[in-house]
Design a protein that fits this description.
Length: 123
């Protein structure tokens, strides 16, 4: 049996999905797949393409950034961020990848990825 793989997911249209092994070694990073197929051609996370990345990873657990409203953000932006979270959780559930609760605040997720990557940036 191969070593367990974990995913760390930074939600957002410029977000990424990182694959990390049990020894905290970074295996790879991919941009979240997005398409301009939302209302008014807004970019949205593409569920089928994300599913392909998740299923190919053979991950057993995923750590997903916590999302919430940001100061000055309108209802449309907050809804879009929440919708992205829902797509990600749905894909992970379909793939049988467990997501521990609570999720990670973005600052913790970024620090974790940075320390795993051994570089000054999370991406």
């Amino acid at each position: 049996m191969s070593a367990p793989i974990f995913l760390a997911i930074d939600i957002g249209l410029t977000g990424a999905i990182a694959r990390v092994d049990a020894d905290k070694r970074l295996i790879g990073v991919d941009d979240l797949p997005v398409l301009a197929d939302g209302p008014a051609c807004r970019r949205t996370i593409n569920g089928p393409l994300l599913a392909e990345l998740v299923f190919k990873s053979h991950a057993i657990r995923a750590f997903v950034e916590t999302v919430g409203p940001r100061p000055g953000e309108g209802a449309v932006g907050a809804f879009a961020f929440g919708r992205s979270r829902g797509i990600i959780e749905g894909v992970l559930a379909a793939a049988g990848v467990s997501v521990p609760a609570p999720s990670l605040p973005s600052s913790v997720a970024r620090r974790s990825l940075t320390s795993c990557a051994g570089v000054g940036k999370g991406r």
